[in-house]
Design brief:
Blueprint (H helix, E strand, L loop, with lengths): L2 E3 L2 E3 L4 H12 L4 E3 H8 L7 H17 L13 E5 L2 E5 L6 H17 L3 H12 L13 H27 L3 H14 L4 H13 L3 H19 L5 H12 L36 H12 L8 E6 L6 H11 L8 E5 L6 H11 L11 H12 L5 E7 L2 H4 L10 E6 L9 E5 L5 H12 L1 H5 L4 H7 L5 H13 L5 H9 L4 H4 L1 E2 L2 E2 H9 L4 H10 L6 E3 H8 L4 H9 L4 E2 L9 E3 L2 H14 L6
Parallel strand pairs: 6-9, 6-10, 7-8, 8-9
Antiparallel strand pairs: 1-2, 3-5, 4-5, 11-12, 13-15, 14-15
Helix pairs in contact: 1-3, 4-5, 5-6, 6-8, 7-8, 8-9, 8-10, 9-10, 13-14, 16-18, 16-19, 18-20, 23-24, 23-25, 23-26
Length: 595
């Protein structure tokens, strides 16, 4: 890591200062909380950690702002800003190698999708040329090391993409030497070995291609105790049975799977208001882009309460994967009683199946859908699933693409699924979200009040967005006036509703999925004057056993088990917004049986 101003390299400071700068650069143009910085710099933070961070922030500010040298352009000089318990490094994206790399890789994907394969290769080569060695090699901080591994993964993925395009362009001879070096450096990376076998085979070097497979087989079995992937095995078998020295090149330099296919583009618009989900985004991208040893389709199930931002995260991940899965994007909402048979009809039409050839039954449609998806690298988003039964007929059976499922419930009955529970948003990120809607000047004008307003939003991005939209529509309102509304329990849910941003409706969509007795219990919990309760107390509220009914409420995220309460008697918690909604429903329906 180096800082360059003009033609001069500036000293980046000692280990802690370099680690701090690395964290800020990895989160360029976003704010990073002091707690997150501290956990990244120390495995066991000292008591003086916050003071040390503040001191090094001051030194960095002096270094970056007070160099005494004129920047090449007014926008090139970074600005180190302190806000609400965190710090942000505001930079020109063209001044940070990592941001330039990511922009060029994304542009390479756009060029490839447009059929401009040779230009895509050039763009990827220039992006990869920015790397001069191991990422953050001179930074010794545990959190930065984890981030560096993620950057290295993106570098290798870009190399694999570039080589795949070059193979499709018929440049197999030119990439053999590079692939040998890459496979030697990354022996467990099967995509690289697959490319090496393809390049050797197409160069008329069948024996060497077979030897590359056998070397990989020994490496996988002896080193990891795993068999090579199905894709490697099938290529090995094809090479053994093949009489031809090379495979036919795909037409016009386009990826094989996209030629002649209908390519649906169903994804909704990416949210501009998604903040604070970097750890979850990185975790899912690393999983979905990483090596697939099982050769099962990759499915991620994102679970969370109403309004926590599951759909926004899934759509963001899908958009980030568009370049990795060029054969289409499918999206469907399955909330409530949506019929999988009708959804499959729409999917099949989007995949190019003529209306007269679409089967009638669910089983036949599902089978044809899986056959159509078998050779595609496509992404599928299934939003707001209520049960595993809704999801199963829609899941592709072959590897190569990615599926994202969002649900209130944890869909644990689905096999081979990566589960992610989406937590509530932290205060700093909620204030950032409010700033994006309302504006920095208005938020800064009344210090302390934004934190009190977002505290009433209970970590729900939907609530913050509704609050922000209402404030933006009333520029003549002070934050103090609006705070009075959200602190009044009789007006709070109304204050968190604006247009189609409606917290009450989000909670209601969980409530209506409950059976009548579970609804009765939920309404009764609204009468509590506290957040926590036991099953025994819940049973007393309804005059009967509430064990399973309470778990029904947990399933749809209307109540939560209290962490750490197992040892002294399991307790549950109903958050304030849900308790207010329960009181409303009790007043409307009566506190007794379901009306």
């Amino acid at each position: 890591m180096e800082i360059e101003v003009g033609q001069r390299v500036l000293p980046a400071g000692g280990p802690l200062q370099r680690g701090l700068l690395a964290m800020l650069l990895l989160n360029s143009n976003n704010f990073v909380s002091a707690d997150r910085i501290i956990s990244a710099l120390w495995e066991k933070p000292p008591e003086t950690a916050l003071g040390q961070v503040q001191t090094r922030i001051w030194r960095l500010r002096q270094l970056l702002h007070g160099t005494g040298e004129t920047s090449p352009a007014p926008t090139a000089r970074p600005q180190l800003i302190t806000r609400a318990g965190g710090y942000g490094l505001i930079v020109d994206p063209e001044a940070v190698d990592l941001l330039v790399f990511e922009r060029r890789v994304k542009h390479g994907g756009v060029l490839l999708a447009a059929g401009r394969a040779r230009e895509a290769v050039k763009e990827l080569r220039e992006a990869l040329a920015l790397f001069r060695g191991p990422v953050f090699a001179n930074v010794n901080a545990p959190g930065v090391g984890i981030e560096a591994e993620a950057v290295e993964e993106r570098r290798l993925a870009a190399i694999e993409q570039r080589i795949e395009i070059e193979l499709n362009l018929g440049l197999h001879v030119q990439v053999v030497a590079e692939l040998r070096e890459l496979v030697a450096a990354h022996p467990y990376r099967e995509r690289l070995r697959l490319h090496l076998m393809q390049a050797l085979h197409r160069s008329g070097r069948r024996a060497e291609a077979v030897a590359a497979y056998r070397d990989g087989h020994r490496t996988m079995v002896d080193g990891a105790g795993l068999e090579p992937s199905r894709e490697l095995k099938e290529l090995h078998r094809a090479i053994l049975l093949s009489d031809a020295a090379t495979d036919p090149a795909p037409a016009a330099g386009r990826p094989r799977a996209t030629v002649g296919l209908h390519v649906p583009r169903d994804l909704p618009r990416d949210s501009v208001h998604l903040v604070g989900r970097c750890p979850e985004t990185n975790e899912l991208l690393n999983y979905l882009r990483g090596p697939n040893d099982s050769q099962l389709p990759r499915v991620v199930a994102i679970a969370g309460g109403p309004g926590v931002g599951k759909t926004a995260l899934a759509v963001r991940i899908a958009h980030l994967l568009v370049d990795d899965v060029p054969d289409g994007q499918l999206f469907t909402w399955v909330g409530g009683k949506a019929d999988p048979n009708a959804i499959l009809h729409r999917f099949l039409r989007g995949l190019g199946v003529p209306e007269r050839e679409v089967p009638e039954t669910l089983e036949e449609r599902s089978a044809l859908y899986r056959a159509r998806m078998a050779d595609r690298r496509a992404i599928l988003v299934i939003d707001d699933a209520e049960s595993e039964a809704q999801v199963r007929p829609l899941l592709p059976a072959a590897p190569g693409g990615a599926t994202l499922v969002t649900s209130r419930r944890r869909l644990t009955a689905l096999d081979g699924v990566r589960h992610l529970d989406l937590p509530a948003l932290g205060e700093t990120d909620m204030i950032r979200l409010l700033v994006e809607t309302v504006g920095r000047d208005r938020i800064d004008a009344e210090p302390g009040l934004p934190a009190r307003i977002v505290d009433r939003c209970e970590g729900l991005p939907l609530a913050v967005r509704a609050v922000g939209a209402r404030l933006a529509a009333r520029p003549h309102w002070s934050l103090a006036r609006f705070l009075a509304a959200v602190e009044d329990e009789t007006r709070r849910l109304d204050a968190m509703s604006f247009g189609d941003l409606d917290v009450r409706a989000a909670i209601a969509s969980s409530y209506i999925r409950l059976e009548p007795r579970a609804r009765q219990l939920f309404r009764a919990l609204g009468s509590l004057d506290r957040a926590e309760f036991t099953v025994r107390e819940a049973s007393e509220l309804i005059g009967g056993c509430a064990d399973e009914l309470t778990e029904d409420l947990v399933d749809v995220r209307l109540v939560h088990p209290v962490p750490g309460s197992w040892s002294d008697g399991l307790r549950y918690r109903i958050d304030g917004l849900c308790r207010l909604f329960a009181r409303e429903r009790a007043a409307l329906e009566g506190a007794g049986t379901e009306s």
